[in-house]
Design a protein that fits this description.
about 150 residues; alpha+beta; Double Stranded RNA Binding Domain
């Protein structure tokens, strides 16, 4: 009888893990391409469940501040694709600051369409790629809003 209880417990844990795994989007892939003419294209891929991918892509003119903005915008496009435009995000700005001997990318957004907070702020500590860091800062800013959206689905 105790082995039966153990099997149920293991089954319950596996079921809870499966549900927990579907409660948030995961950062899957990022690419940043620059042409010789100075055009930049950022691609962000997010994964909700194994094989369930959403994509965001943004192109623009290369510049130090503009590149991080494009990384953030690509993440926003992927998030909006995931929600089928039910939640829209407006990028207020992206800033890179030096703190504690590392770069911190901070993204400020306004969200439209969810009952949660209108103003969102996220950050990401990065040692390297600031453009990728901007995309991750957007994901950190929107985690709670997206969790509410996923649970309500």
């Amino acid at each position: 009888m105790s082995s039966h209880g153990t099997n149920n417990s293991e089954h319950d844990k596996a079921a809870a893990a499966a549900v927990a795994g579907r409660e948030r989007l995961r950062f899957s892939d990022f690419s940043y391409d620059r042409t010789p003419a100075g055009r930049v294209t950022c691609h962000v891929t997010l994964e909700f469940a194994p094989g369930e991918l959403v994509f965001g892509q943004v192109s623009g003119q290369a510049s130090p501040a503009g590149d991080t903005r494009l990384g953030a915008e690509a993440a926003i496009r992927a998030l909006e694709a995931f929600t089928d435009q039910a939640i829209r995000f407006e990028l207020v700005g992206v800033k890179v600051v030096r703190a504690f001997d590392a770069n911190v990318v901070i993204a400020s957004l306004i969200q439209h369409g969810d009952q949660g907070p209108e103003r969102l702020l996220g950050c990401y500590l990065t040692d390297g790629d600031l453009v990728r860091g901007a995309a991750l800062a957007v994901l950190n800013a929107t985690n709670r809003v997206l969790t509410n959206f996923i649970v309500a689905r």
